């Protein structure tokens, strides 16, 4: 397959980022976009010169010309759209979290196992070169057996203000580091103890932390704070520490490598996830969308993010939310 036609369902901030990346990618035809908002649909379609527009995702899935569907809706809507897309024979790129409930994730995995098309969930951090370098060192035994991991992924209040009406910090960003810990440790999580705190008054809590005990004995701690001061220079202040019996790895995803100090203040712009380079979007988002589209073009099942891994990450983060609500340790059977 020399070229694949892609349709995007969901045109919020991140759906538009998908469009930015795909619209100039070799071997990709951004053929269709879909959202329930007609004005937004026209805005994005006009910007990226997309020929087909839909306000009902069922109509997009009925379009036989579409090969890949990127589902970038709110995660509570993922389940029905993903299952229908897989049953329609489409290849599906599904943004994280996979779904809102464990049962929904299991249903999506089951649908993928029966489907003609491929499924991959967008765990973008697995396509960050800093993270993949750490994974390679771990796989090569450079630090021995992992015994402790600690991750932070914190945001300024102005970002939290935009998303805390839709998802909590614990679920929204905790899913990233939960997935990475499972990936690094290659062990299931046995118990979870979590806490949340609401300091800004939004619908969902802006501070969350969880402690994991792995079946292999390792301990993991995740921290997500979406209420850092407004003048925080980082777009995402993300750091990851991995300690093993024979060494340690430190990943600094917060320091962008460049600091800009101008009339608006000091800031560290994104240089990793979806920055612009010579007029095009590059970085980890492009890496993962390129990888999935190449898998589809070559007929090769994607294995960097198996659907079962994505389902497990949701299971753990749901247990963390349960623990935070109850104040008790939650065991994962």
List key phrases describing it.
7-stranded mixed sheet; 17 strands; Rossmann fold; 6-stranded parallel sheet; alpha/beta; Dihydrodipicolinate Reductase, domain 2
Describe the structure in your own words.
The protein has about 325 residues and is of the alpha/beta class. The protein has 2 domains: about 5-120, Rossmann fold (3-Layer(aba) Sandwich); about 125-270 and about 315-330, 2-Layer Sandwich (Dihydrodipicolinate Reductase, domain 2), CATH 3.30.360. Helices cover about 35% and strands about 25% of the residues. The protein has 11 helices and 17 strands. It has helices at about 15-20, 40-50, 55-60, 80-85, 100-115, 130-140, 155-165, 170, 175-185, 285-300, 305-325, and strands at about 5-10, 30-35, 50-55, 70, 90-95, 120, 145-155, 190-195, 205-215, 220-225, 235-245, 250, 260, 265, 275, 280, 330. Strand 5, helix 5 (about 100-115) and strand 6 form a beta-alpha-beta unit. The mean pLDDT is about 95.
Describe the strand arrangement of the main beta sheet, using strand numbers.
12-11-7-10-9-8-17
Q: Look at the structure and give the mean pLDDT.
A: 96
Q: How many independent structural domains?
A: 2
Radius of gyration: 20 Å
CATH architecture of the largest domain: 2-Layer Sandwich
**Quick one: how many beta strands?**
17
- Helix content range: 25-40%
């Amino acid at each position: 397959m020399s070229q694949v036609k892609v349709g995007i369902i969901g045109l919020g901030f991140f759906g538009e980022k998908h469009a930015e990346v795909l619209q100039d990618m070799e071997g990709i035809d951004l053929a269709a976009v879909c959202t329930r908002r007609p004005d937004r649909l026209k805005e994005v379609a006009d910007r990226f010169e997309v020929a087909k527009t839909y306000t009902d995702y069922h109509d997009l899935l009925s379009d036989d010309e579409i090969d890949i569907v990127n589902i970038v809706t709110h995660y509570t809507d993922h389940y029905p759209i993903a299952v229908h897309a897989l049953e329609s024979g489409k290849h599906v790129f599904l943004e994280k979290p996979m779904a809102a409930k464990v049962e929904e994730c299991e249903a999506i995995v089951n649908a993928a196992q029966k489907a003609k098309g491929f499924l991959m969930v967008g765990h973008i951090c697995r396509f960050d070169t800093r993270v993949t370098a750490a994974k390679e060192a771990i796989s090569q035994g450079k630090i021995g057996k992992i015994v402790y991991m600690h991750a932070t992924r914190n945001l300024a209040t102005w970002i939290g203000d935009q998303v805390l009406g839709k998802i909590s910090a614990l679920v929204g960003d905790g899913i990233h580091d939960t997935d990475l810990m499972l990936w690094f440790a290659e062990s299931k999580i046995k118990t979870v103890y979590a806490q949340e705190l609401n300091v800004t008054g939004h619908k969902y809590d802006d501070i969350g932390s969880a402690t994991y005990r792995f079946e292999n004995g390792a301990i993991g701690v995740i921290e997500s704070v979406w209420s850092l001061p407004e003048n925080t220079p980082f777009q995402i202040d993300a750091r990851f520490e991995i300690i093993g019996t024979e060494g340690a790895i430190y990943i600094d995803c917060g320091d962008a490598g460049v600091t800009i100090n101008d009339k608006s203040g000091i800031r560290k712009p994104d240089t990793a996830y979806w920055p612009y380079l010579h007029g095009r979007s590059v970085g980890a988002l492009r890496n993962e969308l390129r990888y999935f589209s190449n898998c589809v073009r070559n007929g090769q099942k994607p294995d960097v993010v198996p659907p079962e891994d994505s389902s497990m990450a949701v299971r753990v983060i749901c247990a963390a939310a349960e623990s935070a609500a109850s104040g008790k340790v939650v065991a994962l059977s």
